[in-house]
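Much of our argument rests on the idea that a fold can be written as discrete symbols. In the encoding step, the backbone of a single protein was reduced to a row of integers, each denoting a local shape. This step matters because it turns folding into a mapping between discrete strings. For completeness, the protein is quoted in full, as a sequence line and a line of structure tokens:
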Amino acid sequence: MYSNKKKFFFCLTIIVFMLLSCNKTKQSNLLEIPIDIHQNSLIPLSEIAEEVTAIDLELTDESLISPMNIQRIIVSDSEVFIASRSKILVFNKTGKFIRSIGSQGKGPGEYSYIRSLALDEKNKRFFITSYDRKIISYDMNGKFLNETSFRGDFSSDINYINGKLLLFVSKINSDSKVTYSQPVLYRLNDNFNVVDSCIVRNLYLDGFSGGTFQWREDFILNGNQSIYLYYGDFFTRKNLGKKVLCDTLYRFENNHLIPDLKLKFDNDRAAESINLFNIYRSLRYIFAVYRNTNDNSFCFFCYDTKTGKGYNCNTQGGNGFIDDINEFENQVQIRPFNFDTEMFYYIHTNMKPEDKEEPNPTLYIGKLKK
């Protein structure tokens, strides 16, 4: 009897040890991407792009585009939707201007300034969020369908992935005792009612100072049918002078956020000088955008998981990528399509000698290598 008890506890000890070992292995298997912030290498598009297609966007009195104000671009099977801060423009695949959608105002179906745009191509509708906390839906022809308001919250990003309407909201909450940052990812139904919600994190701010870096608000991304989320708020503990760096990209599954990868800077001291704007990934590539506060440089990073090669471009005002395919002299700034991170786009204005005024920019759509 005693011997059997000893055997039982011995076996139980072995099982617990194995479970703990598996748990440690699981945690240690989180993909870490090294970044050398001292490296400065321009990134040629031919290294990462399988193809790049150009669409010359028609210039009319109604379709004038300021590249600096573009918030989101979405490409459907037949049309290109371009959302700037104040309007939504629709072009066909050859660049011909078709129509504009909605207008600025405070009435039903009107927006203040556009934050983001999402497309549900199957059901022929799309959604926008605006700075007045509205969510508005239209059909593909621009007919107003529905709207709601998230009072007291800042609706930062919206996306439609795998039949799910997802809304990311950044919140600063406080009660009688504490103040805390609480970004939340919501899943909404067709009437904009909340079906599920997932708190990204609770960061208690007492004794902290800081804010939120938002680089074009691409927080919710569709990567090969997987939903990814990155949100880069930053806070510094006043009494320690130590920054809380959000350096992890998460995968959203079964209403839970699962760590997918982590950026590993040179060392902890180097990380304290980093303001990280964004992380996104395709099947093969990891991208990041950040600012190094030591020299106030704007940096672009690209990592090839297939070759293990990383590029870090300290731009000092540039854009990080060289279009050696079209042989542009100036660098370009690529951005992932939030509906498919296997594709990217950038804007470039091509002036011709015969042009009497600056034309609309050309939209370049690229497909990443696999």
